[in-house]
Q: What sequence folds into this?
RNA sequence: CGGAGCGUGGCGCAGUCUGGUAGCGCACUUGACUGGGGGUCAAGUGGUCGUAGGUUCAAAUCCUAUCGCUCCGACCA
């Protein structure tokens, strides 16, 4: 992408509405614009990141055998009356009427919808287990939206639903999601810690929140500091037993959110207990037959008996993660994207647009990187160099190739790593090869 | 939902108390000079002062209503 053509409205000054760093940076970097309270438009740069996050989430879901579906944003109220949640959910649920005065709602979550689908099409215990997920926009009419996309009213969520024949099987589904979540966040460079959590209005008796630590986090959390050193990517899952071992390992140390914090239990850990603020990026629940019973979703068992499937639901706030990532990865100059979610991998800075040697060197490199499938943002604008550096740093492109007439005379360019600010001189000819590997 | 505050060009703000030509910085346009970390000079474009009603010779400014947004608290991916 050429920056001169890219729709990237960056801001030098921050809109006064934005209070926390991720919100400020998302506005300044031209990622989002607010539409109304807690509702945002995603501009090209922000959307690229959102898609990358979404892709990682999807890949890890697929990897454990979850199958993607896409359920609607608008749901009939009847479904929610069946489960009993139409009244329970309260004002947070956006209720609407269509032209025939039929009651509808903008889905805040999809337990009812998925249960309806499963009960209509799954008849036998042999059809289970099933893990189904979708990535869809949700709406929750928060009393007080804030922190940009971190607590929006409209947000993109991945929600998975598990259906199993027994508690034992349901635990396996739960474990699969548990580990898939650890991997999902780890791939984005985030250390997410599973913490014992409240089940809230979704109900159930087994639940973990996945929390990333950040000073601006909304919840107060407590955990054993050794958890921060755990690495899920080195763990290998071969069967249900090894899956259980990983879950056991991660749940062996104390970790709880404020609501579930147990003072006497925590005191045993003394010095090793960490008290910090955290951002909830995922939440998994096992809730048994709550919905299958309420909505009469059943399958036939081996003896022809009626089985109410054991269910769980598993959410990742995809749009929130974009904000969470920025909270975790930024410095004074702007965003510092981890490679896995960076909107572009390389930025090219033409320090003298209009100089034929510079232009030629830049365009050649730009094209060859593109040809090799590397996402590259070429700043070909006739801006002052300071503005180019500032913009490239602000939007957080991990690698910057700096091409100017001075060094180009020797066939050399500068390569700057955004995260550390380190620069090295490198032959122009060597840049492509460097990034293909 | 309780408490507080703010709506003036794309962004950041002054002007409101004490009514009288709508202003500043950034951004944007044009030209020139420039060019290794948000440049300099010159000339420009852009505003129903959130909306509606009222008071007044006269309203961004006073009054009333209303809408929107933000912050603090209680709730949540």
A:
């Amino acid at each position: 992408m050429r920056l001169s053509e890219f729709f990237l409205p960056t801001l030098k000054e921050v809109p006064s509405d934005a209070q926390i760093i991720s919100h400020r940076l998302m506005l300044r970097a031209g990622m989002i614009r607010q539409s109304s309270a807690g509702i945002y438009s995603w501009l090209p740069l922000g959307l690229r990141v959102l898609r990358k996050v979404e892709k990682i989430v999807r890949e890890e879901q697929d990897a454990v055998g979850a199958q993607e579906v896409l359920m609607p944003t608008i749901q009939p109220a009847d479904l929610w009356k069946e489960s009993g949640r139409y009244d329970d959910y309260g004002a947070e649920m956006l209720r609407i009427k269509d032209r025939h005065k039929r009651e509808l709602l903008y889905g805040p979550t999809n337990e009812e919808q998925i249960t309806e689908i499963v009960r209509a099409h799954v008849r036998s215990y042999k059809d289970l287990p099933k893990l189904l997920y979708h990535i869809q926009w949700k709406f929750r009419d928060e009393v007080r939206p804030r922190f940009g996309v971190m607590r929006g009213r409209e947000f993109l969520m991945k929600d998975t639903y598990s259906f199993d024949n027994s508690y034992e099987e349901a635990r396996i589904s739960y474990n699969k999601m548990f580990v898939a979540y650890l991997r999902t966040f780890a791939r984005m460079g985030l250390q997410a810690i599973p913490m014992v959590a409240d089940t809230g209005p979704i109900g159930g008796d087994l639940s973990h929140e996945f929390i990333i630590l950040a000073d601006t986090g909304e919840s107060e959390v407590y955990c054993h500091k050794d958890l921060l050193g755990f690495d899920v990517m080195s763990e290998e899952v071969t069967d249900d037993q090894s899956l259980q071992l990983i879950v056991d390992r991660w749940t062996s140390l104390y970790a709880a959110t404020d609501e579930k914090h147990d003072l006497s239990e925590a005191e045993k850990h003394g010095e090793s207990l960490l008290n910090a603020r955290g951002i909830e990026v995922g939440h998994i629940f096992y809730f048994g037959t709550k919905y299958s019973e309420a909505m009469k979703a059943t399958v036939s068992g081996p003896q022809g008996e009626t089985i109410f499937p054991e269910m769980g639901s598993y959410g990742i706030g995809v749009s929130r993660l974009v904000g969470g990532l920025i909270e975790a990865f930024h410095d004074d100059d702007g965003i510092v994207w981890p490679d896995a979610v960076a909107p572009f991998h390389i930025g090219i800075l033409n320090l003298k647009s209009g100089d034929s040697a510079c232009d030629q060197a830049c365009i050649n490199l730009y094209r060859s990187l593109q040809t090799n499938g590397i996402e590259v943002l070429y700043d070909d604008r006739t801006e002052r160099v300071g503005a180019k550096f500032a913009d490239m740093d602000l939007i957080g492109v991990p690698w910057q190739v700096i091409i100017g007439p001075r060094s180009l005379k020797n066939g050399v360019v500068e390569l700057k790593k955004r995260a550390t600010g380190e620069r090295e001189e490198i032959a122009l000819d060597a840049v492509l090869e460097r990034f293909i590997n």
Summary: The longest strand of chain A covers residues 273-288. The two ends of chain A are 21 Å apart (CA to CA). Chain A is about 35% helix and 30% strand. The CA atoms of residues 32 and 42 of chain A lie 5 Å apart.
